[in-house]
Amino acid sequence: MRWYSGSVEQAFAEAKKTGKPVFLYWGAVWCPPCNEIKTQVFLHADFPPLMDTVIPVYLDGDTEAAQVWGEKLKVRGYPTLLVLSPAADEWMRISSFVTFEEFKKAFQSAVLSREPFASVLEKAAKGKASDREWRVLAFFDWENAPELKLKSEEILEWRQRLSDRVPRRLRAERSLLAASVLEAGAGADKKSEEAKKIQKKAPAYLERVFFNKDSILAARSLVVYGAKRTLSFAFPEGGKEREKWEEKWIEAARFLRAQQELSVDTRLWTFFPEIQIYDLNQPKTKVYPDPLAKGLEASVKAADAAVTMPMERQAVITGAAYLLRAVHHYEQAEALLKNELEISTSPWYVQASLASLEEARGNKKAAMEWSAKARKSAEGRATRLQWVVSDLEMTVKLDDDKNHKRLKALVRELYDVAVSLRDGFVGRNFTYLEKAQALIKREAKKDPALAEAAFYFLPDCEKYQGRSKKRCEDHFKSFEKLASRS
Asked: In angstroms, rounded to a whole number, what is the distance separating the alpha carbons of residues 263 and 257?
C-alpha cells in the first residue's frame, strides 16, 4: 500500500485541488489494536484499490506534527480512522474493530454519502436516513468520538434514539447501535436519568444484539469485551434473568471463536466473556474450571505457533498474556512475554505488560523494575513521554520510599522530555501531562519537593507561543504554592 508521501497540509491541498476526500489513519507502531487493523485491513489485497478514491494519509503519533494535527482533528486514542472532506470536515470516524469487508462497507458508505457526520445524525433523527447513512451511524466509532458539541446526557439520548429508529431490516446496523447504547449506559453515571432509561430497556437492547448469528457477529466488540460491565449494569441484582443472559453470552462467545474469518486475536479474546462471567459470580476465585483454563492455554499455544508476522504478534501475544493472567496462570503468562521480548520490535510494550503482570502477582519490586525498563527502552517523541507518565503512575502506586527519590527523578525526566518537544503541550502529550500533574500535586502535599522539581521548568515556557505557551505556564504555575512549602 502506497500512502500519501507529503505532509497532512499537502494532502488537504491536494484534496481541494482534486475534489477527493482524505482517509486519515492515526496510530502508533507499538499499539496492539493499530497492528490488528493493519494486518486485517491495510494488508488486505483489496485495500489499495479501495484507496484510489481518496488521498490516504498515514499519521504516526510520534511524527513531528502529529500531535498538532491530532488536536485539530480531535483524535487522541490509537487507532483512529477518519474519512474527511477536502475541507477537513469529518464524514466518518470508523470503528477499528472491523474485518476488511466491514471496513469496506463503512468506508464506501461515508465516501458515497459525502456528508458531514452531524448532517447524517440530523437526517436519522428526522427518519430520513438512507440505508447507507444508517451504516455510517452504525460503524461510527462512538467510544473514540470527538466532542459533538453535546452534553454527555444528550449523547446518551442520541444513541438511544438512533437505536430505536434504525429500520428492523438492517439487522447488523440495529445490533451495532443497540450495543452502542449498552456500552454507553454501562459507562455512564448510574444516577443519571438517561442511564436509568437504558437500564430499564437493557433486555430489549440485548435481544437486538443476540437476535441471531449475524447480529452477534456484527456486535462482537460488546460480546467479546463487555460481558461483566454490561451484565452488571443491566441486572445489578443478579437473579434468573441475568443467568439466562450469561448462558446466551457464553454461547455467543463460543460461536465467535469458531469463525475462521475473524482474526486470531479476536478469537483468543472470546475466552474473556466466560472469564468475566465466572468472576462476576465467583469474585474471590483463584481457580477457574478446567475446560475454560485448559481451553485458553491450548488456544494461546496454538496462536503463538501460528502467528509469525511481527506486526500481528504485537496484537496477539500481549493480549494472550493478559488472558492467562486473568485466570491466574502467571507463570505461563510470564514465559510467553519473556519469549516475545527477545523478538519484539516494540520491547517497551512487552516490558510494560510484564510490569502489570508482576503487579497482579503482588511483586512490587519486580513490577517497578519492569516499568523502569519499559520507560528506558521506549522510542518515539510522544511514546517516550507516555511511558515516563506510565512509570510515574506505577511508582506512585507501588513505591514505599518515603523520600520519593525515584519519583523526583521521574518528575524531572518527564518535564525534560516535555519541554524538549515543540508539541509537548498539544494533543495526547498534553493529556498525559495533565494526568501526571494531578498525581504530582497529590503527592506533593506530602512532599513539597516534588512540586518544586516541577515548578523549576516554568522558564522553559518562553520557547512556546500561543496556546502552547499558555498551557505550559498554567501547568507549571499550578505547582507554585506547593513548591513554596518546600
From this structure: 10
What is the full DSSP assignment across 170-216? -HHHHHHHHHHHHHHHHHS-TTSHHHHHHHHHHHHHHHHHTSSHHHH
Angle between helix 347-361 and helix 381-398 axes, rounded to 10 deg: 10
Tens digit of pLDDT for each residue in 284-321? Answer: 888 999 999 999 999 999 999 999 999 999 999 999 99
Task: Please say whether the beta carbons of 241 and 203 come within 8 A.
Answer: yes
Domain end among 117, 149, 181:
149
Which range marks the domain in which residue 455 is found?
A: 382-486
Q: How many domains does the chain have?
A: 2
Q: Which one of 104, 127, 149 terminates a domain?
A: 149
Say if CB 8 and CB 59 are below 8 A apart: yes
In the predicted model, residues of the chain with pLDDT beneath 50 are none
Per-residue CA distances from 385 to 152, 390, 405 (Å): 30, 9, 20
In a domain, 459, yes or no: yes
Task: Please report whether residue 197 resides in a domain.
Answer: no
Q: Running DSSP on this structure, what letter comes out for residue 90?
A: E
Domain annotation covers residue 142 = yes
Q: Rounded mean pLDDT of the chain? A: 95
> What is the pTM assigned to this prediction?
0.94
Which among 230, 200, 217 is positioned nearest to 267, based on CA atoms?
217
